Amino acid sequence: MMGIYAYDGLVPVVDPEAYVHPEATLVGDVIIGAGCYVGPGAVLRGDFGRIEMRPGSNFQETCVAHAFPGKDVLVEEEGHVGHGAVLHGCRIGRNAMVGMNAVVMDEAVLGENVILGAMSFVRAGMEIPAGHMALGSPAKVIRALSEEEIAWKRAGTGVYRQLAFEAGRKMVPSEPLAAPEPDRRRAEAPRYDPLVLERRRFSGQP
Question: Can you give the pTM of this predicted structure?
Answer without folding.
Answer: 0.90
